[in-house]
Write a structure and sequence with these properties.
By secondary structure, the protein is an all-beta fold. Helix content is 0%, strand content 48%. The strands form 4 sheets. It has a 4-stranded mixed β-sheet with strand order 1-7-6-3, with no helix packed on it. Strands 8-9-12-11 form a 4-stranded antiparallel β-sheet, with no helix packed on it. Strands 2-5-4 form a 3-stranded antiparallel β-sheet, with no helix packed on it.
Length: 196
């Protein structure tokens, strides 16, 4: 039989099943599959492939791909039709489970500045699929503490997902510093980005 499925969002799952008929050879069977909930699993995410004639009947692979960042239930109806036009259907519930997507951070690759002088504010934008931007935590740390110690990094939260970073070099000598920005969501997922 065909059993219910559960799989995480943003992934594809596959199910192999067999279709047979007492009067129609496997090569004469037609198989279709539909989704009851296109907001979760669209029809374009329901694919039948690898049709193979076997001793058990027609071997078919069903692939299910949900909409991006969507979760919930969809009833998948699989219908087989013989060459005489008679058909039979089976149903399964495909449950797409939620996954905590990591937040995103966007900032320029480089932050030009003068040695020994604070840089102009570097705009930083953060966002997350599941969490409001004002729930995200942004941190900065220096990967070159001899050039810019962590205490010389000033992060400011402007509004929602907008932040700024000001870097004050510890030396008046021209040099290159590297800063790592990290954004963390309330569930603990995080993303990092380096700025030179």
């Amino acid at each position: 039989g065909i059993g219910d499925l559960s799989f995480p969002e943003d992934t594809t799952t596959n199910l192999v099943f067999y279709v047979s008929d007492d009067r129609t050879p496997p090569s004469g069977l037609q198989v279709q599959a539909t989704s009851s909930n296109p907001a979760v699993i669209p029809q374009s995410g329901v694919r039948l492939s690898a049709f193979t004639n076997t001793d058990k009947g027609l071997r078919v692979t069903l692939s299910l791909t949900p909409q991006t960042n969507q979760f919930g239930d969809a009833i998948i109806t699989i219908t087989a039709t013989d060459r005489g036009g008679l058909s039979a259907s089976r149903f399964l519930v495909a449950t797409v489970t939620p996954v905590n997507d990591p937040p995103t951070v966007a900032a320029a690759d480089t932050l030009p500045g003068l040695a020994g002088v604070p840089t102009p504010p570097l705009p930083i934008q953060v966002s997350d699929v599941e969490s409001a931007a004002d729930q995200l935590v942004v941190t900065a740390r220096s990967l070159t503490p001899n050039v810019v110690p962590d205490s010389n990094l000033t992060l400011a939260h402007a509004s929602a997902g907008d932040w700024t970073l000001v870097v004050t070099p510890a030396t008046s000598e021209p040099t290159l510093a590297q800063i790592e920005l990290t954004v963390t969501d309330p569930q603990g997922a995080h993303t990092g980005r380096s700025v030179n």
